[in-house]
Amino acid sequence: MYQVTFTFENQDPVVVTAAPDASLLEVARNANVAIDAPCSGNGSCGKCRVKLIAGELDSPRTGHISEEEYADGWRLSCGSKILSDVTVLVPDIASAYQSRMKTADLSSGEEIATFERLQQAIQDAGVAFRNDFVTQTVTMDAPTLDDTMPDNERLTWAIQAQMGVETVELPYFVMKKLAAVLRAADFSVQVVGERKGDHLKVYDVTAEDAPVCAMAVDIGTTTVAAVLVDLFTGKLLAKASSGNGQIRYGADVINRIVEQGKAGGVKRLQDAVVKETLRPILAGLCASAKIKASRIFRVCVASNTTMNHLLLGVDAAPVRMEPYIPSFFHVHGLKAADIGLAVNPSADLRIAPNIGSYVGGDITAGTFATLLWNKEEFSLFVDLGTNGEIVFGNQDFMMSCACSAGPAFEGGDISCGMRATDGAIEAVTIDVDTMEPAYKIVGDEGQQPVGLCGSGIIDLISELFRCGIINAKGLFVREGSRVAHDHHGTGRYILATPAESATGREIALTEVDIDSFVRAKGAIYSAIDTLLSSLDMDASVLEHVYVAGGIGSGINMKNAINIGMFPAVELEKYEYVGNSSLAGAYAMVLSDDANEKVEDIARNMTYVELSTHVGYMDNFVAACFLPHTDAARFPDSVQER
Amino acid sequence: MYQVTFTFENQDPVVVTAAPDASLLEVARNANVAIDAPCSGNGSCGKCRVKLIAGELDSPRTGHISEEEYADGWRLSCGSKILSDVTVLVPDIASAYQSRMKTADLSSGEEIATFERLQQAIQDAGVAFRNDFVTQTVTMDAPTLDDTMPDNERLTWAIQAQMGVETVELPYFVMKKLAAVLRAADFSVQVVGERKGDHLKVYDVTAEDAPVCAMAVDIGTTTVAAVLVDLFTGKLLAKASSGNGQIRYGADVINRIVEQGKAGGVKRLQDAVVKETLRPILAGLCASAKIKASRIFRVCVASNTTMNHLLLGVDAAPVRMEPYIPSFFHVHGLKAADIGLAVNPSADLRIAPNIGSYVGGDITAGTFATLLWNKEEFSLFVDLGTNGEIVFGNQDFMMSCACSAGPAFEGGDISCGMRATDGAIEAVTIDVDTMEPAYKIVGDEGQQPVGLCGSGIIDLISELFRCGIINAKGLFVREGSRVAHDHHGTGRYILATPAESATGREIALTEVDIDSFVRAKGAIYSAIDTLLSSLDMDASVLEHVYVAGGIGSGINMKNAINIGMFPAVELEKYEYVGNSSLAGAYAMVLSDDANEKVEDIARNMTYVELSTHVGYMDNFVAACFLPHTDAARFPDSVQER
After folding, report:
1. Pick the CATH number of A2-99 from 3.90.226.10, 3.40.50.720, 3.10.20.30, 1.10.10.10
2. Measured between alpha carbons, how far is A372 from A395 in angstroms, rounded to an integer?
3. In chain A, where the domains are located
4. CB contact set of A280 (below 8 Å; sequence gap of 6+)
5. In A, which residues are within 8 Å of B318 by CB distance?
6. pTM metric for this prediction
7. Which tens digits make up the pLDDT trace of B177-201?
8. Do A170 and B333 touch (CB under 8 A)?
9. Which chain B residues touch A334 with a CB distance below 8 Å?
10. What does the pLDDT look like over A432-457, one tens digit per residue?
11. ipTM, interface predicted TM-score of the complex
12. Looking at beta carbons, which residues of chain B come within 8 Å of A306?
């Protein structure tokens, strides 16, 4: 056995033993060392680079590592076999994983404004933000030798009299602590319950008064975002987000399903999201709002079909094997405690319902939040995640489909891609004559660029095309100081030289990156196209286009249309709705009306399976150009040189 | 630290370390070595004797150990401090604990006949032995690319169509295994559920068909008895019983409450009954009936108030502290899994309701089983356990009270007492002239006597009194070869000499034993007396007297009246009802009608607290004679010499 030492820039080393020839990435995973590996270790993404400090690895150089970098010790951990005791440096800023762990949901004023605008619109549409939770201080006489009623009956009678209900149901954990709580509180306690007609289902009985809260969570394949809310007022008490801890098992749902199919995998993937992701988020929310986790009385999760299967520890293997059958669309009667979330033991766990193997609760919750279901006119809803999902319809009908866009919109599959966090270039313009870039960077003034986030990539490709630097196939066709080619002849645009970047590494967009992104935007556009044409419609029917996803509020819709990602409809019809999944989950956790409406949406939405849909493949191929093989669809998309 | 070695006649030694001066009994308890200590280690019962083989104990001789025995190494473990490495022998047959561990419930044909007679009478009285459990094989089409309904929805629809229900509720654990079960069963599964109107609450879905069972349990302070039944037919599939593993924490409920009040005590006492007692019983039942524990879909427990608090891990301390308040009389909504019983995860746990601090679910269940609540004429129900409980009433009203009889009826507090198992003398006659005894022994022919069980003690005292060997105060007043006195002058009757007994120790009843028993019978009689006289009634109103408890079917009612234990009513009015608590629990687990009736009985029964009742103490003192200070109450009780 060899000794493997993982060192870091900002944390203590981790030392483990490993068998000869073991994969460095596997060893890191087993040691819970976070190394980004969105392609799940098949060598294609190039993100898992580490720097060899001492010892020997069998690790051939790939296209992801330059000769200079290789000489400097950089290796891909997925392709590295351990040949001796080794010490490696896991880079901090260079690893997108660390960035992914600090995500942007509701962290900016713009995101919060978007969120609050949606909630207001939902209420304006007549959805009552009410639930059956009640809380009251209930006071009893202390027992005496002449009044020997037991604690349970004493409390029950007092609740009946003071809260005006006929029947009362106490949970077991309350029964266990009842004697102590009543006596600690001198027989005056706070009761929290859910009232249905004349029945009170008690959730908790406590000696002290405290807030009554709920948690809404969006579990994305890549990132997880959550809010803590007051169940009575709906006030946002705290917000938190992080990367999905499952990411070390692969960037997309297919890789995750493969991993969970291995021995012990269901438990391992569930642990990765519950223990490693939700528990820290929960702790952060509680610390931030200064409440105990036991004050969270309901949890709602919106997530894609695979994510909610893995969250519940339900085998997702059949989802990816013909005929692609999930275990459930709707699932009820769950407790948060069932999956090991240490909130109040009585807390229910609401799961936003799925409607297909690849259209999940994040989309039903998001569709609810857009109010698409409440309008006479036709709307399109596009959620740009690791998977892209499309919903089209109005108050009378809804259809949806999913396409595999890959992680490009969140900066994955792109050599210098990253999420919209500090250091991300989120907007770019290029001078058509000098080809010099100007850009806007997320973060404080003086922040140097680290990489490109989704909105920045759209801008950059759009500008490269407008300036005639790349052609419709995404190949470089102009020369200049910002354009370079490697020894294979692959062109790239240098957005920041090593001297200009925060990392000391060049920030550039290559033809390979452009190709990845064009495939992603082509998948989205052709999915929209296929859905509309299946109804003999086209984009001209659209009155609203809602765009959601982690791509960020900075998305430039004009540029997105210019590159043929979205249909060419009037810009004012576009609306960025941010994390619509979280917005829907927030409404669902607070409002029983909203919850029912989301269930209705799921029942009434038709799922179109694109992979078996005649014509989709042709549409996709046609969309993998800038802006499209049928340029007439994008009359405003022009090349100025 | 010293090394303590516990050796046994029939099992491997247990070796532990102990601090100097540690109590040998405490060391044994911590090592899970079973030593009987009904008095919880205060030196009064003399049952915890062990034989010192090597080493040194600080252990003064008490009245429980003769000088010869002391010289031979016998010590009381509760009074022994460890002064060196020691080796002790824990006796097998001499320890009543081992006997208590093999109890007699439903082990004899007579007990089973009694049980079945009660169940028949309950059904004859119009209680429907029905529940809402249903089971059916449900068959689905396997999914295809053209039929991609998820597993949950597929099963739900099939249940709706094939079982004729509108709504279906699946538990989480079924959701987790659903994909595997449906595929293992080729989409034809057994569904077990509870049907309420148009709603089916699914309990389990399995690939194979298997029986649908329930478990009924009587948890006594001393012994635990259980039956496994078929939920549809009511057939007894298996029966099992054992001592209550809590017994090492004291013989009566007061000692148990004291023990559970110590740090970690609630968990320790719960573990003693759940892990050490119910789990082996459950395993035995399942092995005997050849079913998996997951086929048990409902559990019902009848037990006294302290026992059901300790079972649920609910602090019982307030029960014994003024003003004596239990946590609950009724408790609902429990799952068997809540207390760690590994039956089906969906299985509910029904707890027979309590009606007072010292009248618990065993009495409400037992009262139900006697049908006292269903008769116009007045009945008395007496349950002879470690506590004695009395119920009086008819279809219009019921009253109850409890008295502390101590463990005398089960052989505790009596030097040669034991339960009605192999070797127990269960019936005795004495020749009035020769004073020679004749007795009947439980067990195979040729079985030598080990001790006296409750019915044997009643017979013996009645016979000693009839033959004028003892007087009304229980003191020896005749001389003869069977009568002896120790050096304090304390008389005893020698039932078996060392040569005649199975243990090589004399079997005798001493004046101290007689005094203990007379106090126990006095407590019972005076409780009956107090209850009746509080209504200005006397025993002449009684049409039925139901006697229940572990005292055994061999109880001679005539002798029990002769010694003034029961009121002098016609013998044919007496009926031995065996373990009425278990009989009631059996009905409750099978029949929703029975369950409701027991809840009604608990709500309608009045509890009389004897300890604060004016006149009870006088009645008790008056009853502590043979047969009573007011001999006119027992006209048939005569002394023939």
Report:
1. 3.10.20.30
2. 7
3. 2-99, 133-206, 370-405+518-580+614-631, 408-517
4. A242
5. 151, 179, 183
6. 0.87
7. 999 999 999 999 999 999 999 999 9
8. yes
9. 172
10. 999 999 999 988 888 899 999 889 99
11. 0.87
12. none
